[in-house]
Specification:
heterodimer; A: mainly alpha; elongated; B: mainly alpha; 74% helix; 0% strand
Chain lengths: 270, 181
């Protein structure tokens, strides 16, 4: 074969390489608009009109049921072991000088993580307190109160909430599957898994502090959620098998639970 | 309306202008993302991410390059980073059983197989060579545009294209030789 013929084949191959289909313009515009409005700051507790209300209610129900069962089976809760009740910092000179300042709410209300559904006020509060556990010297600098305006703290808050939501999703999926009902994965479930996949990627792209465990966990979640979205879209048995294999091989649910503070996990105490 | 006027209207919160910007550029951004990703879902994700980032950073657009070039810079960065992540994940989950076997007899390759093999050869180009080849020979970008988009000198862009073509020609010659044997 001559050089000219080779070049012609090359040109032909180039023209037919990954030929794009018609772009889904409207679907992409909707997703972009949704992501942008979710990323905008929303005051905690403010009413949010989203299509996820039904999903959020389901997630909240699972969370509450898990916590109630957990607490009922554990008996009276020892306040000192509850993660959400962080012991107040030792009184410092700064905090003694201005004791009234320490009585102020330490967390600005308007801080919210992107694309996070407000599951329940109590859990959000617990997650926020966990996320704001800053080094002692940092706490002193702000008169004993945690500083959520700090990027790292806001990032930790977003991660904790995201892990909680993902655990709920994966746990309910596993429960459905074990009851032989995996085929009943509906469009809303698919949309939620896609949304969580997007948030996972966002958290990976904007990671702070470079905690290698969290990064690895988020990478595992990215993979598993990608498979879950695929299965939810196509409903193929082979995708389900691959998903189960990945979840088991990567120990995703146990890892999630070990990274979610007690009292926040959907299955805590059970 | 010029790029700058459109950007100013977007920055002022004009939703119609945002949609106009999207409509004007989405097709080409999606084409580029698809050519680089080779997958409709990934291309959709990359395109969405490109516009989300672009709208967030619109205030940083200075008008030095055209809005299209600025958007394609973001699109390329998002797509290549996304592909790196996908490749890493796929590599982590691929077992030896997943690797397809090569056909025992590669002689008498039909033309469409030859084309598929060439596509595979393009896929196999390194992360430095493939974007330049795809942008220049597939999507018709100029070396100046590639230079701005990828942040490399024009000479480097030309050299990478030359290398990419040489590698593909070599891959093609092997199969062409088999075919003529």
């Amino acid at each position: 074969m001559k050089d000219d013929e080779l070049d012609e084949m090359l040109r032909d191959a180039a023209l037919t390489y990954n030929t794009p289909p018609e772009p889904p313009r409207e679907a992409m515009w909707e997703a972009i608009s949704r992501a942008r409005s979710a990323a905008s700051v929303v005051p905690i507790g403010a009413p949010r009109r989203t299509r996820w209300i039904a999903t959020a209610a389901g997630i909240a129900a699972v969370l509450v049921a898990g916590i109630v069962i957990g607490r009922a089976s554990r008996g009276p809760v020892d306040a000192s072991t509850t993660v959400a009740r962080v012991a107040p910092p030792a009184p410092s000179a700064a905090s003694q000088r201005d004791s009234s300042a320490s009585e102020q709410p330490s967390v600005p209300n308007e801080i919210a993580s992107p694309a996070v559904v407000d599951v329940t006020g109590g859990h959000r509060e617990a997650a926020r307190q966990l996320a704001t556990r800053a080094p002692a010297q940092q706490r002193e600098r702000v008169n004993g109160s945690a500083d959520l305006s700090n990027d790292g703290a806001a990032y930790r808050l977003a991660v904790v909430e995201h892990l909680t939501r993902t655990e709920v999703l994966l746990t309910s999926f596993r429960a459905q599957e074990q009851s032989g009902d995996a085929a009943r994965v509906d469009a809303q479930f698919a949309a939620l898994s896609r949304e969580l996949l997007g948030t996972t990627r966002l958290l990976l792209a904007t990671r702070r502090g470079d905690d290698p465990n969290i990064t690895r966990l988020l990478q595992d979640l990215e993979y598993v959620l990608m498979q879950l979205s695929q299965y939810a879209n196509d409903g193929r048995r082979v995708d389900l098998d691959a998903l189960n294999q990945s979840m088991d091989k990567r120990n995703v649910i146990p890892k999630l639970r070990s990274n979610i503070p007690a009292g926040l996990s959907a299955t805590s105490g059970t | 309306m010029t790029d700058k006027q459109l950007v100013e209207r977007c920055l002022a919160g004009d939703r119609t202008a945002e949609r106009a910007l999207y409509d004007a550029h989405v097709d080409r951004v999606y084409r580029l993302a698809f050519r680089l990703a080779g997958d409709a879902d990934l291309a959709q994700d990359f395109t969405q991410e490109t516009f989300i980032r672009a709208f967030d950073r619109l205030g940083q657009y200075r008008g030095d390059a055209s809005l299209a070039t600025w958007l394609h810079t973001i699109a390329t960065s998002v797509s290549l980073n996304g592909m790196r992540s996908v490749t890493r994940l796929r590599a982590r989950s691929t077992t030896i059983d997943d690797v397809p076997e090569l056909p025992a007899n590669t002689k008498r390759v039909a033309p469409h197989d030859l084309r598929e093999r060439l596509h595979a050869a393009i896929d196999a180009l390194s992360v430095k060579l493939r974007p330049v080849f795809v942008m220049h020979d597939v999507e018709g970008y100029t070396h100046d545009e590639i230079s701005t988009t990828l942040g490399i000198p024009v000479g480097t862009s030309k050299a990478r294209l030359f290398d990419a073509r040489a590698k593909l020609r070599a891959a093609l010659a092997i199969f062409a030789g088999d075919q003529s044997a």
